[in-house]
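Structure first, sequence second, as always.
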């Protein structure tokens, strides 16, 4: 019986087909490992402020809020997966780890009247405000321990009522305040936090979010100014929406609209702050502090040196609600 032989070209074709299949499967495997898919990922660990384990309901709400923020920020293929108390955020580029991280902030929003604005570069205008009459609702915990630690430096700073008084404090007094932790600074009178130059903005940024209680005056910063702020008049729950917009001049802004009750409160705030400033506070940072030139009875534009990405991120952060859990980058 004759033996049937397979032509050489058929063997070559079969080999090429097998190699092609292996290459295709290899590409799929690499994509699943994210070596070439272009996806950006960030893993964060969720904790409750009181240290207790987060509930499933809190984790689910956090996941939904993060996903809402990512979509409002314009990130493609956005997703958030739960893995125990870890949340894995993923999105297509141009999302970055930095932009994803910015969306994991609490997102607590407050509107406060500016009592005093002190430039961080030390420059002062003539006739700066005297804040000796600013009330302090109650003494926060830890005040006595900080007073004892500071000794005579505390009494020297307590006599200051204007920014120029703070600048004139002796170097040893300034050094004593510079050595305080963020928690210790939060126990000081707000007026003192604002007037002592050696109390730096990083100490406010590191303070617990609880130190920004809405019924107390606080001191917070933007890139160039330290602000003494009155108790909060509005919160994030008073916002109906926040969205990125573009003006007729091509500038990117964030457009805010209020709930009916929120609009009433904001209008009253502009009446009380007429001729002065109102600060929009996000967590521990002053996002914007515009001068009030008249009564505001409608929507508000937040303007600044925003590009499209920055405006979208800000709108997503403040327009989606406050996260119920604290999120920190996961180790490992």
């Amino acid at each position: 019986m004759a033996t049937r032989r397979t032509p050489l070209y058929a063997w070559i074709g079969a080999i090429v087909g097998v190699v092609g299949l292996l290459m295709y499967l290899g590409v799929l495997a690499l994509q699943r490992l994210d070596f070439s898919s272009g996806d950006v990922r960030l893993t964060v660990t969720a904790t409750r402020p009181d240290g207790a384990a987060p509930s499933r309901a809190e984790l689910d709400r956090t996941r939904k809020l993060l996903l809402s923020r990512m979509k409002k920020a314009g990130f493609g293929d956005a997703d958030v997966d739960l893995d125990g108390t870890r949340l894995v955020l993923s999105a297509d580029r141009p999302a970055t780890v930095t932009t994803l991280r910015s969306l994991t902030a609490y997102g607590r929003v407050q509107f406060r009247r500016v009592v005093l604005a002190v430039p961080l570069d030390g420059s002062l205008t003539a006739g700066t405000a005297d804040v000796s009459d600013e009330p302090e609702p109650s003494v926060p915990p830890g005040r006595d321990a900080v007073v004892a630690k500071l000794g005579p430096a505390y009494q020297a700073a307590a006599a200051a009522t204007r920014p120029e008084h703070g600048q004139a404090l002796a170097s040893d007094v300034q050094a004593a305040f510079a050595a305080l932790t963020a928690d210790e600074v939060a126990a000081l009178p707000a007026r003192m936090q604002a007037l002592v130059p050696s109390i730096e903005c990083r100490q406010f940024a590191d303070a617990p979010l609880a130190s920004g209680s809405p019924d107390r005056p606080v001191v917070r910063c933007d890139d160039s100014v330290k602000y003494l702020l009155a108790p909060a008049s509005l919160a994030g729950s008073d916002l109906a929406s926040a969205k990125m917009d573009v003006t007729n001049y091509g500038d990117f802004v964030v457009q805010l609209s209020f709930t009916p009750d929120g609009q009433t409160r904001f209008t009253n705030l502009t009446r009380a702050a007429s001729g002065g400033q109102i600060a929009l506070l996000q967590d521990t940072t002053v996002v914007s502090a515009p001068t009030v030139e008249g009564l505001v009875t409608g929507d508000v534009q937040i303007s600044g040196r925003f590009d499209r990405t920055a405006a979208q991120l800000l709108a997503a952060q403040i327009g989606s609600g406050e996260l119920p859990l604290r999120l920190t980058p996961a180790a490992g």
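Margin note: The CA atoms of residues 280 and 295 lie 17 Å apart.
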